[in-house]
């Protein structure tokens, strides 16, 4: 009877045993997941900010093609986003590794050996100095049964880490878009300040030339001449300071958009509308529900980490229970290589092995406590993230409402100070006031014009802050959603073969 014929009925028995084992219900030792409770308002208090809603492509509301192009360039070329995508790939690979733990581990082996005995060994036989040659080949399989859910919980934990990484990538896209917009607005504000400084310098140099002629003619005192000279240098210093700031802002914006080192060194960043010509900021509709805020990527990512640590508790608890594995081998063994693959050379074995920790001096118990502590830490991070989100929306709403009023006041102030400078110069030229009054009016005007540029920047930044606080703005009913709702499922499918459904974490258990 051949060895293969002898193996067949036993393989049938083993197959039946495996089917029975797979049909046994397995348990999970992970606690049931529940979202941490927090006292979240159903709706925000009414704010009088108008009625024009934002959509998720919030930067399009500024109607600046250059801004749109820069943000799109940053979302494609930013190196922080490239590193984030690599982390998504890494997390997906780790989930793939966890998937392999559900299947048997099969290894192929082959060996050829001979040996000789030592002449100095006990019971040495001079006629058997060299043993016969031995040739062997086979397949070895080991399969640990997941009775306690150790591998299933490990897979769940790594899947949640993957989702945390994917949603974190969404959050980073939102951050990069917001940083690019704010860097662009800062550059436009600095351009306005530089133009103001240059215009002021030209005006003061022209006036200083007149004062120099009058001083030489004895019409004004040296004190007035020296003060006029000092104001020229003040404006000149501001030109140099603003030039440095513009150059720094351009370099920072080039890095955000992923430009090459050559472009960072040699290329100027494009400009669209002047900062004072950008449209008034869109405003937030009143009475938006709190659920809108909870879609923020950072909140969703924080909750996925709670779910991951929750599953890790099940992994740690499973270490208390026996580990049961099925083992098997199918191969050949022969003293002659030519007969290695004959039926008579066949060998096989199969069995069940089990192990259980008896005395590990508290190692498993401490691992469980560590997993529980990590979950508590993740819950604290989640609560703080939600709290910070409501802090962001509260402060950004106030900033958005007040920033527009600040700009209106600053513009009126600048108009009044310009008229004050004209009056002061006219009175000084006609001898009705001293030069100090002129200097004071010019200084106030110069400072107010610089502050107006900053106020215009702050008003635009307030819009960006609202969009960031809401996770990307909110949708217009008549428009298709855009950024940052990029499709978590699509991103998963593009970066991994795992087709995990990605609903809001609240539905997970």
Give a structural overview:
The protein has 509 residues and is of the alpha+beta class. The protein has a single domain (44-105, 144-321, 356-482), classed as Outer membrane efflux proteins (OEP) (Up-down Bundle). 59% of the residues lie in helices and 8% in strands. It has helices at 3-23, 65-77, 79-100, 150-216, 222-256, 261-266, 290-293, 297-318, 363-429, 435-469, 488-495; strands at 105-113, 134-145, 323-334, 346-355. The protein has a four-stranded antiparallel sheet with strand order 1-2-3-4, with helices on one face. Helix 4 packs antiparallel against helix 5 and helix 9 runs antiparallel to helix 10 (435-469). The longest helix is centred in the middle third of the chain and has 67 residues, at 150-216. The chain is elongated and about 130 Å long. Mean pLDDT is 78; it is low at 1-9, 44-55, 476-489 and 495-509.
Mind telling me the C-alpha Rg? 37 Å
Q: How many individual β-strands? A: 4
User: CATH homologous superfamily, by name?
Assistant: Outer membrane efflux proteins (OEP)
Unreliable stretches, pLDDT < 50, 5 or more residues?
1-9, 44-55, 476-489, 495-509
* N-to-C SSE string, H for helix and E for strand: HHHEEHHHHHEEHHH
Domain tally: 1
Percent of sequence in beta strands: 5-15%
Largest sheet entry: 4 strands, antiparallel
Can you identify the CATH class? Mainly Alpha
pLDDT averaged residue by residue: 78
N-to-C CA distance: 56 Å
Helix content: 55-70%
Side-by-side strand order of the widest sheet: 1-2-3-4
What best-fitting shape do the alpha-carbon axes yield? elongated
């Amino acid at each position: 009877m051949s060895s293969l014929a002898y193996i067949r009925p036993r393989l049938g028995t083993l197959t039946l045993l495996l089917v029975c084992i797979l049909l046994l219900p397995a348990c999970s030792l992970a606690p049931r997941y529940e979202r941490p409770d927090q006292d979240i308002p159903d709706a925000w208090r009414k704010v009088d900010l108008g009625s024009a809603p934002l959509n998720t492509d919030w930067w399009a509301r500024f109607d600046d093609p250059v801004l749109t192009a820069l943000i799109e360039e940053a979302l494609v070329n930013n190196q922080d986003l490239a590193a984030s995508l690599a982390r998504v790939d890494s997390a997906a690979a780790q989930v793939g590794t966890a998937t392999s733990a559900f299947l048997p581990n099969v290894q192929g082996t082959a060996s050829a050996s001979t040996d000789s005995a030592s002449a100095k060994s006990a019971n040495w036989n001079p006629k058997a100095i060299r043993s016969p040659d031995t040739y062997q080949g086979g397949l070895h399989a080991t399969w640990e049964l997941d009775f306690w859910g150790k591998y299933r919980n490990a897979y769940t934990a790594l899947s949640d880490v993957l989702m945390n990484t994917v949603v974190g990538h969404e959050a980073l896209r939102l951050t990069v878009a917001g940083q690019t917009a704010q860097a662009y607005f800062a550059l436009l504000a600095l351009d306005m300040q530089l133009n103001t400084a240059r215009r002021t310098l030209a005006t003061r140099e022209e006036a200083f030339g007149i004062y120099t002629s009058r001083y030489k003619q004895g019409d004004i005192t040296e004190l007035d001449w020296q003060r006029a000279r000092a104001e020229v240098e003040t404006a000149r210093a501001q030109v140099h300071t603003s030039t440095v700031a513009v150059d720094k802002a351009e370099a920072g914006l080039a890095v955000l958009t992923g430009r090459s080192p050559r472009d960072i060194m040699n290329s100027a960043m494009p400009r669209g509308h002047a900062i004072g010509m950008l449209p008034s900021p869109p405003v937030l509709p009143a009475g938006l529900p709190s659920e809108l805020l909870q879609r923020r990527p950072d909140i969703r990512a924080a909750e996925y980490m709670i779910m991951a640590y929750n599953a890790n508790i099940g992994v740690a608890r499973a270490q208390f229970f026996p580990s049961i594995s099925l083992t098997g081998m199918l191969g050949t063994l022969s003293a002659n290589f030519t007969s290695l693959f004959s039926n008579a050379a066949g060998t096989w074995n199969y069995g069940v092995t089990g192990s259980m920790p008896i005395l590990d001096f508290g190692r498993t118990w401490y691992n469980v406590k560590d997993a529980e502590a990590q979950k508590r830490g993740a819950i604290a991070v989640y609560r703080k993230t939600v709290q910070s989100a409501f802090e962001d929306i509260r402060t950004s709403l106030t900033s958005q409402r007040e920033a527009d009023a600040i700009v209106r006041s600053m513009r009126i102030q600048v108009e009044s100070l310009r008229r004050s400078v004209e009056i002061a110069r006219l009175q000084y030229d006609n001898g009705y006031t001293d030069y100090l009054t002129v200097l004071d009016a010019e200084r106030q005007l110069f400072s107010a014009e610089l502050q107006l540029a900053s106020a215009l920047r702050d008003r635009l930044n307030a819009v960006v802050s609202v969009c960031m606080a809401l996770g990307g703005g909110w949708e217009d009913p008549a428009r298709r959603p855009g950024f940052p709702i990029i499709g978590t499922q699509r991103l998963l499918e593009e970066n991994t073969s795992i087709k995990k459904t990605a609903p809001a974490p609240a539905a997970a258990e």
